[in-house]
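Researcher: Quick test of sequence recovery. Tokens follow.
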């Protein structure tokens, strides 16, 4: 039971958010030898990763944005313009991101979240396996988490 000495507040506060993250990291390090060993290594830094497909006229045709951390590639966003779909650009974007993650950043695995109306079949076709499905996220849709071993 929460003591009467405490109270709940709401609102966005950057300083409290930074303190929250610091405290959470400290707790995680205390609880997990894996996280403790990871801290301070090159794999502990979250490093952005982006791959772009541009038209001859310099227009964005497709792109992948993600990051690497803990020897994992995390694909945050992958998009190809409707007019260019079916030309293999999504596969090429993903393959290049995986190559960078594996060869240049020593990643062993990749992960992605996608909705049922987006691309779970595409990722399965690229060697990813479904590890979780969250129904009604948002209501009426399913979110899939897929992973792939890179090494």
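Model:
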């Amino acid at each position: 039971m929460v003591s009467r000495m405490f109270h709940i507040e709401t609102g966005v506060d950057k300083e409290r958010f930074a303190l929250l993250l610091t405290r959470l990291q400290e707790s995680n390090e205390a609880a997990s030898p894996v996280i403790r060993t990871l801290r301070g290594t090159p794999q502990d830094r979250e490093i952005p990763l982006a791959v772009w497909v541009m038209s001859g006229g310099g227009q964005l045709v497709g792109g992948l944005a993600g990051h690497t951390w803990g020897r994992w590639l995390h694909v945050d966003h992958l998009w190809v313009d409707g007019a260019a779909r079916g030309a293999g650009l999504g596969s090429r974007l993903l393959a290049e991101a995986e190559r960078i993650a594996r060869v240049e950043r020593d990643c062993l695995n990749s992960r992605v979240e996608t909705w049922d109306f987006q691309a779970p079949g595409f990722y399965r076709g690229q060697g990813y396996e479904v590890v979780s499905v969250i129904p009604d996220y948002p209501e009426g849709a399913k979110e899939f988490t897929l992973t792939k071993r890179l090494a």
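The two ends are 48 Å apart (CA to CA).
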